[in-house]
Amino acid sequence: MTQKIKFKEMLSHKKAGILIPLFCIYSKKSFGIADFQDLKLLIDWVKLTGHSILQLLPMNEMGPVFCPYDALSSFALEPVYISLRDLPMPKDKSLKRQIDNLKKNFPLDNGNCDYTVKEEKLRILKEVFLMQGQEEPQGLLRFREENDYWLYGFSLFKALKIRYNGLPWYDWPKEYKERDRESLENFRRDNIEEVRFQEWVQWQLFEQFKDAKEYAGEKGICLKGDLPILVSRDSSDVWEHPEFFKLGLAAGAPPDMYCALGQRWGMPTYDWGKIEESGYAYLKEKLKYAGNFYDILRIDHVVGLFRIWSIPYNEPLENKGLNGFFDPGDESLWGPHGRKILQFMIDNCDMFLCAEDLGIIPLICTETLRDLGIPGNDVQRWVKDWNIRHDFLNKEEYRFLAVTMLSTHDTTNWAAWWENEAGTVDEALFIRKCSDHRAIGFERMRERLFNPALSRHGRLRWRDEIDSVDKLLDELSCAGSLPREHLCDFVGLWKDSFHEKEKLWMLLALPGVMREKCTPEAMQAILRFVLGVNSVFCINNIFDWLYPSGIIKKDAYAYRINTPGTVSRANWSLRVPMPLEDLLKHQVTSDIRTMVSASGRK
Length: 602
Description:
Largest sheet: 8 strands, parallel
Oligomer: single chain
Radius of gyration: 25 Å
Strand order of the largest sheet: 11-8-3-2-1-18-15-12
């Protein structure tokens, strides 16, 4: 059965949603970071803005770099989001003082959240747990029984990780690394208090998240979750089921026009043959658990289910994704491989599936998603006629079966793109293209082809004078030393990006000459445009929505959720500079509702 049949109602009317990572918001009652009580307040705000979908980033427990897409488990939830307000709290003055100190020690009015609050929250949680007594609640017993597939191994994994000071499992003593049964049973018995604590924390998270999901349902809001295609090498999944993973490989993405060396994510790729031999139990259990919390599920990097860019694990890190290969290597296998997995997912969950299909996507992936009724992603800045017009598509040209957006968690917000990236090419890519043609010197070409005043953040902006292919080739051909037919890749870059801003300005019917700065009027125009496209879903990042309101006062480029290929405290910690209580009363809330309502979306 396809989703067109299974979820006919979901596709019957165009819908509007908003992407808000939970760590990006907070309330006046938050303890250092947002929690599941704040999620309810966020749902109230989403309802007030006229949206019907709230999209979250993955909520799985994160590792030491706090990346939601490099999780310690495909199942376990992140303890930092637990609401201390919702716990069965003993009447203990010392405990109350510790909780109050969280607000003092982790102020909410700075630009980024501080994940070290997790250690403090866990320390308080441990005290609450120990004060509960020996008798285990029926709800916990039931939770343990219903989630035995992953909870038993995860709680043991976490206890071992604490015992060995956070070392990855592959650096543990041999008996634990290789999962010697007797050694693990002895360790579990000797550390049963820590094991039970980990189970209790996950039970509390389960109850709180499920309660928030029910609250969203009462408000008519669908929660959209995110299923990362991969999991951390140092995860309970890989430790418990190494046979499901190809540990000699690291997943990534091939080089493209935006990442000259490609990307290396580091997570191991799947051995789908072994997963299939098990009846896809691992995948089925992941979907079952996610179904407790979400109505809609985003499949991250869906093309990886067809074929995934695989990099030998021992490849030098500085090469990123440059020396990888597609697995499976036989292109004729890609279609059947991806279709089988996606069909299994449709048949084995009650969530509506969407797919992230950005990047270099083979036609068979696009066709399969369409056949199965799974919407892909359309990011407005990349939705173009790349072959003939080299220009942005009109509203009616967007595909219906898609989730359209202005930006993603991995890109700049739209205002930052407009000011720094539109009309540019990637500098690293252009350097590589020049090195492929030794007669072309990059330094000379940068001076002759690009405007230094408008080239920043690793992007090169074309000079207005290079306004034709002939002028570009005249500069590149180096006085006749290179035949023009050898310069097609440079021509493609120019056609795709030259005067990109001017073209979009015209499409939006903005008055006057094109402006370099993203004005509130330009931002409102692009929001109206994207709400009006043909796609069934339109889900925009909260920072795109807030830009015209004046709430965002810094350079738009600073408001980025993640910069791929980097490890930084700025990643995955960006915070809206206003508590939810104030946002609920702000004029921007009414303005958003007016625009969504005018679009006809629900």
